[in-house]
Each structure stands twice: as structure tokens, then as C-alpha cells.
Design brief:
Layout lengths: L2 H15 L3 H17 L3 H28 L21 H8 L2 H4 L3 E5 L6 H14 L4 E5 H13 L3 H10 L2 E7 L6 H14 L4 E6 L6 H4 L4 H13 L1 E5 L5 H13 L1 H14 L1
Parallel strand pairs: 1-4, 1-5, 2-3, 3-4
The structure holds adenosine-5'-diphosphate and magnesium ion (MG).
Length: about 270
């Protein structure tokens, strides 16, 4: 084996044992380029280390995205702001995507009818936060309450609570779809109280604030206290209009055949 081949094998082994996958991937092609373009040694080293930095950043983001457990991938660039009846401003969402509100432990509440992009935007903002390497967790409100109740029964409540307190951004989707019993409502209340002014929450809900008390088993005091904390430092974004999917469907149908549209519309309307 030539000296060059031996050196190459050694570099690969060393980079692996130092956990530098970026170096393993790029050093050969960079070495070739360095020879061709007569780079100095420092320049070569800098390029190799930059590749390692990029690789680490990328895998940290991937890790954050996996941890966040988004039910599906939704991003800002697939959101059609023109289809929101003027309810949602692209500039406002772009500003929120910068994530400064997470640094301030502020909250966001998306409230509005089904299919108006609440979950889409909540995921998209969560994805942006994960890209900034913040710890994010997405969960439906009913699921997290169920997990809390199960953890309590298994005497593991403390552990789950700590995990839930620690994430920088908790996305609570679909608050209001399923009402909680008293114990469940209290556990959710405790979670939000613990996070209050320390860590951010995004809530999506189909309910008006006046209806929240229904979700918390009619407990006015608890609901008022919870809303107080949640909304104290919150950006409330009301969504409105028809369901986006239905709107699309209507558009397509009216392109195809006008008569079918009027007959088909109320049916899909009820389903949504
Ligand atoms: P909600 O959570 O308000 O019920 P979703 O965010 O789940 O609604 O939206 C339903 C579907 O329609 C999703 O697939 C979502 O990506 C899509 N959608 C909703 N609004 C928009 C929009 N303005 N631009 C692009 N897709 C949208
Ligand atoms: Mg939703």
C-alpha cells in the first residue's frame, strides 16, 4: 500500500473514532481540490472543519425534528396565505418564524374553524424552531392529557412532567375536540402553569375562549386561571373561512362541471 492510501485509511479511522462524520465524507474530495487549486494547508483544514460543522448542525436539526414528533411535515413555503381570507398575514408569520417569542417564553394561540390551517402553521412554526435547534414537542391536547393520566396511574408522573416542562416549545394541537375530566383538566392546568413565563406553548383550538370552560368540565375557576396564564403573553391568531381542502375541492369541481358543485357542496360541508 502506498503512503497516501495508508494515510487515507488512517484519517477515516481517526475521524470515525473522533465522531467526525463530515470529515469522513468530504476530506478526499477536498484534498483533491486543494491539490488542484494549490490551497494552503490552513485553507484546507478550514474547509474540512467547516464541512464537519455543517454536518453536525444538520444532524442536530434532524435530531430535533425527530424528537418533535410532528404528525406530518408542514412548512411555511407550502402555506397559501392568499387562501386565508386575509386572516393570516404572511409578514406576521414570517416574524414569528424567527423564534424570538420563544426566547421570551411567549405563546401563540391559533383559534378558528376546522381546516383553516391552524395545525399546518403550528407545525411549520415548530419546524422553524427545531431548525433553530430548539427542543420542540408536538402533541394533541387529548393525547398529552391521556399520557399524563397514565403516567400518574403508573406512578411515573414526575418523569413525564419534567420531560414536558423541559421542551422549549410545546405544541398543543386540537384543544377542545375532546373534553377532559377533572383530573385530566388539572394535569393540563399544572403543565401550563409550570411552563408559564418560562417556556412557550402553541395552542390550536376550534373553540372561542368563552367555550373553553366546556373542555375543562365546567370548572370556571380553573379555566379562567388557565386562560389568564396562557393568554397573558400570547399572540392570538384567529383563522376563518371555509376549510382549505373543501375550498380546493370546490375550485376543482367548478372547473370541471358547475352543476355537480352545488349538489356536492353541502354534503362535504357536513362531513368537515
Ligand atoms: P386545522 O388545523 O385548522 O383544522 P389544517 O392545518 O390541518 O387545519 O389544514 C387542513 C389541510 O389543509 C392540511 O393538509 C393543510 O396543510 C391544508 N391547508 C390549510 N390551510 C392552508 C393554506 N392556507 N395553504 C396551504 N394549505 C393549507
Ligand atoms: Mg388541526
Amino acid at each position: 500500500m502506498s503512503r497516501a492510501v495508508v494515510a487515507k485509511e488512517l484519517v477515516i479511522a481517526q475521524a470515525r473514532s473522533l465522531k467526525m462524520p463530515g470529515v469522513v465524507r468530504v476530506f478526499e474530495s477536498l484534498a483533491r481540490q486543494a491539490r488542484e487549486d494549490h490551497w494552503g494547508y490552513e485553507e484546507f483544514l478550514h474547509e474540512v472543519l467547516s464541512a464537519e460543522q455543517t454536518s453536525r448542525r444538520d444532524s442536530a436539526v434532524k435530531h430535533r425534528l425527530r424528537e418533535a414528533r410532528f404528525p406530518e411535515m408542514k412548512t411555511m413555503d407550502t402555506f397559501d396565505f392568499a387562501a386565508t381570507d386575509g386572516a393570516i398575514s404572511a409578514a406576521q408569520i414570517a416574524e414569528l418564524a424567527r423564534g424570538e417569542w420563544i426566547g421570551r417564553a411567549d405563546n401563540i394561540i391559533f383559534a378558528g374553524p376546522i381546516g383553516t390551517g391552524k395545525t399546518h402553521l403550528a407545525i411549520a412554526l415548530g419546524v422553524e424552531a427545531a431548525r433553530q435547534r430548539r427542543r420542540v414537542l408536538f402533541t394533541r391536547a387529548a393525547d398529552v392529557v391521556r399520557s399524563l393520566l397514565e403516567a400518574r396511574d403508573a406512578r411515573e408522573l414526575g418523569r413525564l412532567q419534567r420531560r414536558l416542562y423541559q421542551v422549549d416549545l410545546l405544541v398543543l394541537d386540537e384543544l377542545g375536540f375532546v373534553p377532559f375530566d377533572r383530573a385530566g383538566g388539572e394535569l393540563l392546568f399544572n403543565l401550563l402553569t409550570e411552563r408559564y413565563e418560562r417556556r412557550s406553548v402553541i395552542v390550536t383550538t376550534n373553540l372561542a375562549f368563552s367555550e373553553w370552560v366546556k373542555v375543562f368540565g365546567g370548572d370556571e375557576k380553573l379555566t379562567t386561571a388557565l386562560l389568564d396564564r396562557l393568554a397573558h403573553h400570547a399572540t392570538v391568531i384567529p383563522t376563518k373561512g371555509k376549510s382549505y381542502r373543501m375550498r380546493k375541492k370546490t375550485l376543482n369541481e367548478s372547473n370541471d362541471e358547475d352543476q355537480v358543485t352545488s349538489a356536492a357542496l353541502p354534503k362535504t360541508g357536513r362531513k368537515a
